[in-house]
């Protein structure tokens, strides 16, 4: 089957896999050791098996923090070492530990031929180990089981990978639709502003010109009348402006937090003439009261960047790490040189107060620009 590929970053979900995979491997080790100790394997052999197995589990736990060039060779050696030490239950280790390696390799390897080569190498080494531990006994049956497992795993992964691609494409399509909807709404609001609010303001301005003419001629009664009419027009304009702002606020609050976050950041960036790139990678929704404080911190940071940083671009990232949210705001401006400069220019007090309200911690760094980090707990307010 042809390996399915996509431009999206679809990867092995270590966050979801940590606990169930660890339970599977620990259970496998316990079964293999308990069924054979002390008649089929020695205590030393069992200790080494447990040690190598726990190392395999520990490395898997930190899979996303270890480079692939180190992770996979080391895990392969540990897997084969455990399989060799497992004596009569080698196939259990190969199927349990090897299964995870094959799944991870599937997501890490974009070349289908290279992945097939990895599978063949794994099968060849497994065949050698099974030949050594079983000395020909039931060897063909065990090899067929292992081969069947590898084929089934590949087929299942290919199906799920295709579904991941379809979900990503559907998500992209929905995002494009939402973006077009927001653009249409902006255009409608722009037309409304031009057709009503701006026209009224232009009319009021022309009336003020007329007032100036009347005053020069001494026609104070006419000037007073024109001022009264102009005042009414300005009041109507203020009312319409408030209505437009209220409509915008309601439309934003009806959006999911991710869309509202991006929309408000884009609008502020547009008003400040400051290009902003926004990225949101969270699985757990923020409580409403936390959302407002996070948005306030972002707006304050963008405003300060516009005023003091002389930056040409800002990157905003909101992501989820275990029990914490992390908000990172980075610019490519001039930064600051000392703590006094930071406090005076970047107005920390307001952002620190917001961070304290949501039990968060705010840090600011300056190196090739300014980096603001806000960490706050996921459980807060839920």
TrEMBL record:
Residues 163-190 form a coiled coil. The keyword Coiled coil applies. Residues 291-378 form the Histidine kinase/HSP90-like ATPase domain. It comes from the Bacteria. Keywords: Coiled coil, Kinase, Transferase, Two-component regulatory system. GO terms for molecular function: phosphorelay sensor kinase activity; protein dimerization activity. InterPro entries: HATPase_C_sf, HATPase_dom, Sensor_HK_TwoCompSys, Sig_transdc_His_kin_sub3_dim/P. It comes from Caryophanon tenue. It catalyses: ATP + protein L-histidine = ADP + protein N-phospho-L-histidine. GO terms for cellular component: membrane. Pfam families: HATPase_c, HisKA_3. Its EC number is 2.7.13.3. This is histidine kinase.
């Amino acid at each position: 089957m042809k390996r399915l590929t996509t431009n999206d970053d679809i990867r092995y979900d270590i966050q979801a896999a940590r606990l169930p995979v660890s339970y599977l491997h620990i259970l496998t080790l316990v079964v293999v050791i308990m069924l054979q100790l002390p008649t089929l394997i020695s205590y030393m052999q069992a200790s080494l098996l447990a040690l190598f197995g726990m190392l395999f589990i520990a490395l898997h736990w930190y899979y996303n923090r270890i480079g692939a060039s180190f992770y996979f060779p080391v895990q392969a050696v540990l897997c084969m070492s455990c399989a060799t030490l497992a004596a009569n239950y080698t196939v259990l280790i190969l199927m349990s530990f090897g299964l995870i390696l094959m799944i991870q390799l599937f997501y890490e390897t974009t070349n289908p031929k290279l992945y097939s080569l990895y599978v063949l190498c794994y099968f060849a080494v497994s065949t050698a180990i099974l030949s050594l531990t079983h000395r020909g006994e039931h060897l063909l049956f065990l090899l067929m089981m292992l081969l069947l497992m590898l084929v089934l795993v590949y087929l299942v992964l290919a199906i799920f990978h295709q579904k991941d691609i379809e979900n990503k494409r559907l998500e992209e399509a929905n995002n494009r639709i939402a973006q077009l909807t927001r653009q249409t709404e902006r255009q409608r609001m722009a037309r409304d502003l031009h057709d009503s609010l701006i026209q009224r303001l232009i009319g009021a301005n022309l009336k003020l010109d007329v007032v100036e003419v009347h005053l020069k001629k001494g026609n104070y009664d006419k000037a007073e009348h024109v001022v009264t009419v102009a005042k009414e027009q300005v009041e109507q304009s203020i009312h319409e402006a408030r209505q437009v702002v209220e409509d915008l606020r309601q439309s934003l609050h009806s959006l999911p937090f991710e869309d509202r976050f991006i929309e408000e950041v884009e609008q502020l960036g547009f008003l400040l003439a400051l290009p902003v790139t926004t990225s949101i990678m969270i699985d757990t929704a923020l409580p409403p009261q936390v959302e407002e404080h996070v948005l306030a911190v972002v707006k304050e940071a963008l405003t300060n960047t516009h005023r003091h940083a002389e930056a040409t671009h800002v990157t905003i990232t909101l992501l989820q790490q275990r029990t914490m949210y992390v908000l990172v705001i980075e610019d490519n401006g001039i930064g600051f040189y000392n703590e006094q400069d930071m406090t005076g220019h970047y107005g920390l007090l307001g952002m620190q107060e917001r961070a304290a309200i949501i039990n968060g911690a705010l840090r600011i760094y300056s190196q090739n620009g300014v980096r603001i980090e806000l960490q706050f707990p996921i459980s807060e307010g839920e």
